[in-house]
Every structure is written in C-alpha cells, then in structure tokens.
Amino acid sequence: MIESDVSTGYGAPRSECFYQVYVRSFADSDGDGVGDLEGLRSRLAYIGALGVDGILLSPCFASPQFDHGYDVADYFKIDPLYGTLPDMDLVLAEAHRRNLLVLLDIIPNHCSSKHAWFETAVRSQPGSPLRQRFLFARGRGPHGDSPPNNWRSYFGGPAWSRSPRDHTGEWYFHLFGTEQPDFNWRSTDVQELFDRVLEFWLHRGVDGFRIDAAHALCKAAGLPDVPGLDQIRDPNEAIRINPHIIDQPEVHEVWRRWRALINSLKPEARLVGEIWVDTPQAQQAYLGPDELHEAFVFGLMYTPWTANALAETIRSLHDAFAANGRLPSWVLSTHDESRVVTRMGNGHVGLSRARGLALLALALPGNYYLYNGEELGLPTVDISKRHIQDPLFALTGRTRDGCRVPLPWTIRSQSNYGFSSRETASCSWLPQPDWWGELSLEAQEPEFSSTLSLYRQALILRRRIWGGLHSLQVDDAVVSFHRGNEFMCITNTGDTPKRLNLDGDVLLVSEGRDSLWLPSNATLWLRTRS
Ligand code: BGC
Ligand code: MG
What we know:
Layout: E1 17-21, H1 37-42, H2 44-50, E2 54-57, E3 61-62, E4 74-78, H3 85-97, E5 101-106, H4 116-123, E6 136-138, E7 160-161, E8 170-173, H5 188-204, E9 208-211, H6 235-240, H7 251-265, E10 270-273, H8 280-284, E11 294-297, H9 307-322, E12 329-331, H10 340-343, H11 347-362, E13 368-371, H12 391-396, H13 414-417, H14 441-444, H15 451-462, E14 469-475, E15 478-483, E16 487-492, E17 498-499, E18 504-509, E19 517-518, E20 522-528
Parallel strand pairs: 1-2, 1-13, 2-5, 5-9, 9-10, 10-11, 11-12, 12-13
Antiparallel strand pairs: 3-4, 6-8, 7-8, 14-15, 15-16, 16-20, 17-19, 18-20
C-alpha cells in the first residue's frame, strides 16, 4: 500500500469534516414545514458543537423546486422558501464567527426551464446565440418529431424534450429532468455567467463550492447515437456507458477556468467535485493545482460489510489518490442515497454496523462529508406513495425522499419534532414517522452511548489522529490499519466478539466498553504504544 502524505494540497494541516445541510430538512424557522436559512442559523451552535470544520449547504438559490433546488432559476438570488440574501449573509457571518467554513452547492450542468435564459432561448430562432446557450438540436424524421439521438437521461427516458412553446422542430437536451435543460459549455455567455456566479458568492464570503455533476458539463459534438443504448434499462447505466456525455476532455477547460478565477479572487477557497466516473484513477484528472481541490469518494457507500471488501475499497481508493499525492474526500451518505443504517440492514445490527463504519471512515486520512442526520443514526424512512415528492419517482419508480425527511430535534412530536420552531407549524414537507422522537437530538444528547455522542467524541478525537495510513490488514472478519506511529483502527465485521491482544489505550469504541473484547459489528480506536 502507498503510504499517504497527509497534506491535502491547500495547506490544511489535518483531515477536515464538513457537515452537509440539506436546508429543506434541517430546521424550519417560519413554520411552513420547510427548512430555511434562519432555521439553519438558529442551529449553527449545534453544528459547531459537533466539532466539524464547516458546512456544505444544499442549493437554496431561486428555483421552482422541481428537483428541490437542483433546478436553479436565478443563481444570484435566494429562494423565498429559504429566506433572503441578507439571511444568507447572516448565516455566513454567524458560521464564520463559530469558525465554520461555508461551502455552497453550485449546479453548472443545467438550470431550471424557468431560468430567464432558457425562456428566452425557447422564444428565439434556431441558430440564434440566445439558443446556443443550451443544447438545442433538430429532431429526426421529416418533421423533426423524433429526438435528435438515442441518449438517455439520469431521470429515465430520453434526454431530449420539446418545449410546448417551441414550434421550430428543435429539441433540447437535459441530462436530468425535463425541467432541467443543460447549458452549452461551448457558449462564452455560459462561461461568463458562471464566472460572475462564483465571483458574486465569493465576495459575499463563501469559502468554496460543491460542484454538482462535475463530470458531465460537456457533450460530444455531432451528437452521435450510441448503438445498443435502447436495450439498457437502468438510467444510470445508460449514462455510464454513453461515451459522449461523461468525462469529455473539454470539461477540464471549465475546471481550469474556475480554478484560475478562484486563485485570483480567493486562493484559500476550495472546489469539491461530484464526479461520477468509472474509476478513482479517472477522478484524478479532475484534481490538481489547476483544477479541483477535492473529489467526493463514494466507494464506502457501496462496499459490503465484510473485512475483505472494506480493506479492498480502502486500499484501492486510498492508493489511487496517494499515488498522486492526494487524499480522498470520504462520504458515507448524501441526500441522494439510502441512509447508512438502512443499507447496513436496519435494526440493531444495521445501527451497529453504521456506527462501526463511521469510526472506520473517520479514521482514514482525507476529508469527511457528513450528511445531516447521519450523526443521529437515522435510517431511511419509507414514504408512502401519496407523499412522495422526488421527481425521480414518477420516471424511474425510485425515490430519494427516505433520506430527506426533516430532522427530529425533540422527543415530543409538537412542531414536527422540533424541526419547526412554531407551535402552529404546518406539517413538514415530508412526513416524519411516529418513532422519530426516539432518535432526536433531545433523546440522544444526554446518553453517553448514543450515536450522537459517538460522533461528537469521534470528531473531536479525530483532530488528533495524525500520520499516513499503513499496515492495512485483514484477519478473518477483522480489518485493521494504522495511522502514523500511535494510532490503530480495528473493525470487527463478524457476528461474534473478537478477543483483542493489543498494547495500547482504547480511545473510542463504537459498541461496548471492554478493552479485551471487540463486539461484533464494531470499530475500536486505539492509541498504540510505540
Ligand atoms: C444531485 C441530485 C440532483 C442532480 C441534478 C445530483 O448530483 O446531488 O440531488 O438531482 O444532481 O442536479
Ligand atoms: Mg420554513
């Protein structure tokens, strides 16, 4: 294994942790059942006390909310649902006062079909520069009635639609929903628009950006058909195997442009890419001194709970980054995926494994992105069909709502388990289950053994874990590794406790207290005697 260099490339002295706030579901100040910026501001003390270094905010720009903000109508405005620009300024000021950095989620691949530019484009003639800000193309067949090619969208179905107001025979491309037209990144208007967007938010004090779908901005010229695509059922797979959308060489020009801008305006700011490419090696091309600072690494989300599988994921991802002098940015959960506890089987075992996996991931070198509610051990909630909000559902039958249920703050159900700050609040935008209070902050805060307490201890202790990763080993159901000379992390993925024969002091254990036995489905942090 390659020993990691723990410097991160932008002068950070240690691995950091960012708390992802899904603003809609975090805290609601005005009682409309939807989380907002003022709600977030009122809970920044909670986030600060977790021991994280910053927050990453899911999009709160002006948006029709078709995809809950991933369909932006105006990148310079805050959606009234979430508040105002002055509210955002207050969040920034208050977060900074608490030594929390603030990253925004920027969506450059597409906007909303209600963005003024798209509305103008639809009204313009084919070939007009206003239309060239998007990807319009003439349909096939004598009247242009079939889509220009067979490319598919992530949300299911063709990646092409016609606007009902457009009678030109042209179709527009959308990698996601019909309401999310893709920008044409060959257009200088588009390039300049995003220069202004970055500049605007950096001037307001933002410390960096998550870049949505950073692998997908540029599409091959000529829009060639992909043979066999029509036989692929899974929409993600239909994109993955399409060689003309993902990971096109031109996309790097965009990131070089953004990095140059960042370097000139605020060199300490960072760009973190959501980059879905086939291998961790392919992700490397997006990183470096002239492109992005970090890439989310999702591998642990899909790794089965066995010692061999975990070791293999850690080794391959860590080594792919370390070979280039970098570190992965680890993610166990996001607003797009089933929650860890549920992926690990739910119930007692699911929770134990989720806690064990968290300690394992937090012990690795590299930044960590913690999705709100992960620290409470929330599972994915089953949402009944009539309450589903996710646009993905109608098109694919899959919903991401189960990981987006508004957080429980109080044991009692009043005010949506404390999510809303008013007694008279409307129901929360997604229904909360009747056992939600058991997992609330209020229920967990006083309990030393709660998942919240575990995360708090881990995040504080993690600041003192130092040194490169080495000696990754599998012994039966146990996977272990060292950091530097003084730290060891041991995970027992098996169903029976393991007797430990170790020389050192237990720093933290995800289950139980005994230093001689490591319970099943648990992780232990040890300070070794060197
Ligand atoms: C975001 C999703 C969103 C999609 C379209 C993704 O990568 O994380 O929530 O639906 O981009 O913007
Ligand atoms: Mg609200």
